[in-house]
């Protein structure tokens, strides 16, 4: 696989995490430490699922190919609905701050990496090549989600965005989840 192909795959895989990171970053309740946890979670699960898929791809490819997008999309949509609900209720603790949410979102945005491992990376027989390719996918995700949190910090400074952050983030996640399930 050429570097260009690998970069395009890594970029495409990390766009899910980028979108979710912007939505999460719009929430004022999310502190820097939690953002770092999200970035690491997104990058780790992109790497891990791509590697897992590459090793098990040829065994499960025809059975799992259509399911990951539906599951990941449903989880992202549910988180979006919970964010909208919080916007209406003005709760003290936000859903995104709750324990386990970092892992849940990390897994949900990375399920497509499992499919890429199944379909694209499964023909590599050299373990070092697999490790290199999957680590690269994780690093691109780490960089892009870090950038997404930086962008969301500036978006929050816009009064309308800050005032309606739960609604905007929730709607973005719902739309993105539906897109993951249907397209």
TrEMBL record:
Alphabetized InterPro entries for the sequence: Mntp/YtaF
Keywords assigned by UniProt, alphabetized: Cell membrane, Membrane, Transmembrane, Transmembrane helix
Transmembrane segments: 6-26, 38-57, 63-84, 96-118, 130-152, 164-182
Signal sequence interval, chain numbering: none
Protein name listed in UniProt: Manganese efflux pump MntP
Listed Pfam families: Mntp
Organism: Clostridium kluyveri (strain ATCC 8527 / DSM 555 / NBRC 12016 / NCIMB 10680 / K1)
